[in-house]
Structures are given as C-alpha cells and as structure tokens.
C-alpha cells in the first residue's frame, strides 16, 4: 500500500477513544468530535474495551470519562440506525443488538471496581446523558447542557430513562423525558444529575483534585463500597441493612481495614495494600 493510500485510510478511520493514565487516574477521552462523540456500535466497542483496560490496570484507582469537542456525546448514531432499516428485517436485529450493547456498556460503568467520574464540558444528550447518569460521579462546566430528546424524533429515551430515574426525582426525570428540552448545568446539579457545576476554567482541576482524593483511599475499600452501594440500592430496607452488615463485617477482616484503623489511632498516614 502506498504512503498516500495509508494516509487516506488513516483519515477515513475515526478515533473513538483516547486513553491515558496519570498516576492512579485513568482517563478515557471520547475523541470523535467530528461526530459529536456519537455512540455508534464501533464507538461503544472501543469504550467498553477501554473500561476493561481501566478495570484491569492494577495502578489505576479512579477512572475519568471526558471528551474532545463541544459534545460529551450526542447519543446514538442516527445515520447508522437509519441505515439498518435497509436490511431484510427492517433493522430489528440491529436495533436489538445496539440497545443491548449500550445497556451492557452502561452496566460495565456501574460494575467497574473503580469509581468512574464523568467530566462534561458541552452537550450530553440521549444516550450521552445516560452515560453521564451511569457514572458514579459527574462534574460539568457551567455552560454544559443535558437532554433526553428522543421524544422529539419519535423515539422515547427508554434506556436512558433507566439511569436518569436512578439519579433524579421522578417528576424531574419525566419532565426531561416528555419535553426533550435541554437543561443547563445549574439545573442538572439541582435535580441530582450532576455533583457540581463549575466555571469552565476550573473543570479539569476540580475533577483532578477529586480523583486524586478518591485515589488516595484503599482500592479494596473503594471496590467493596461501590459494589455494595449499587446492590443495596435495589433492595428493601431490611434486606439492605442485612446485606450491608455482612459487607462491613467482611470488610473489617481485610488488611486495609486493620491498617486504616490502626493508622488513625496511631495518628499516622495509612499504607494501603489493596487486600
């Protein structure tokens, strides 16, 4: 293949994700800005692979999902979805696979043994908003905007609704879902979709400080706590207390719990082993 052909192929192939790690912070950057970081099947493949690598990186303690360009993610690739209609079944098999894949990717965020933080400086809509809601924590610039606008194009945001209704009150969620209107970062913070909206110039530093603070904790404790948080949230009150009591008792048997309590009593910094 000629150099010119190789260059042309390189230009034709979009880069969906970039990955870096700075100390204990693993950063996944959605990098297909030209397509507003649409969640095509290929893009979700790359995001899932990046999440797997982040989960398996022994030196990573926290995962940050950020983005290039003016959109965190505009949601699914509508052109890809429309093209699937040309298949013999009208696209049904493709749509089943697409939404199952998206749901699996969102569950992968939830099940990642490390805290996952969304860093948003732009628009997050539809499945892009779903990804923000699926992250454990979310921070955004004050100029960012959020929406679940599927209702505007005849496709209700049913899967984004799952993450949305687990973050914000039902009436706020229904308003977003039924109107499809954009909300600003301040409102997103007020209803619980965001932890905090900050000035654009402060966003990266805010997320970095938070990530480093979390990364300073015992990795075993973070894994234990994140898993228990989501499990107990789906339980009734009595079952949740019974489950978390068992989790705490098991946690107490860990070396890091012994080390952390001992360090506190002895007024010294703890040394975590992750066990």
UniProtKB/TrEMBL annotation:
Q: What is this protein called?
A: Enoyl-CoA hydratase domain-containing protein 3, mitochondrial
Q: Which family does it belong to?
A: Belongs to the enoyl-CoA hydratase/isomerase family.
Q: Which NCBIfam families does the annotation name?
A: PRK08139.1 (NF006008)
Keywords attached to this Swiss-Prot or TrEMBL record, sorted alphabetically, are: Fatty acid metabolism, Lipid metabolism, Lyase, Transit peptide
Note the superkingdom of the native organism: Bacteria
The record's listing under CDD domains reads:
crotonase-like
The answer to whether the entry has keyword Lyase is yes
> Which purpose does this protein serve, as stated in its record?
May play a role in fatty acid biosynthesis and insulin sensitivity.
Molecular function (GO) terms for this protein are: hydro-lyase activity
State whether keyword Transit peptide applies. Answer: yes
> Which is a GO BP term held by this UniProt record?
fatty acid metabolic process
Organism per entry: Futiania mangrovi
């Amino acid at each position: 293949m000629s150099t010119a052909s190789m260059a042309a192929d390189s230009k034709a192939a979009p880069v969906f994700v970039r990955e870096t790690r700075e100390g204990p912070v693993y950063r996944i950057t959605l990098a297909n800005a030209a397509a507003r970081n649409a969640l095509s099947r290929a893009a979700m493949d790359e995001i899932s692979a990046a999440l797997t690598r982040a989960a398996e990186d022994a030196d990573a303690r926290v995962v940050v999902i950020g983005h290039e360009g003016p959109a965190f993610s505009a949601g699914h690739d509508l052109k890809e979805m429309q093209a699937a209609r040309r298949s013999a079944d009208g696209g049904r098999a493709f749509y089943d696979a697409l939404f199952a894949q998206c749901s699996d990717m969102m569950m992968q965020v939830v099940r990642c043994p490390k805290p996952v933080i969304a860093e948003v400086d732009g628009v997050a809509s539809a499945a892009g908003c779903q990804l923000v809601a699926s992250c454990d924590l979310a921070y955004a610039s004050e100029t960012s905007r959020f929406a679940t606008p599927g209702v505007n194009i005849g496709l209700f945001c049913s899967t984004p609704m799952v993450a949305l209704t687990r973050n914000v009150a039902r009436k706020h969620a229904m308003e977003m879902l039924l109107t499809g209107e954009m909300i600003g970062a301040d409102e997103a913070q007020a209803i619980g979709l965001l932890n905090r909206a900050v000035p654009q110039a402060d966003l990266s530093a805010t997320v970095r400080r938070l990530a480093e603070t979390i990364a300073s904790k015992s990795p075993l404790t973070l894994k234990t706590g994140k898993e228990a948080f989501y499990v107990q949230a789906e339980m009734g009150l009595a079952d949740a207390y019974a489950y978390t009591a068992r989790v705490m008792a098991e946690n107490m048997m860990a070396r890091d719990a012994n080390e952390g309590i001992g360090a506190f009593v002895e007024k010294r910094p703890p040394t975590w082993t992750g066990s």
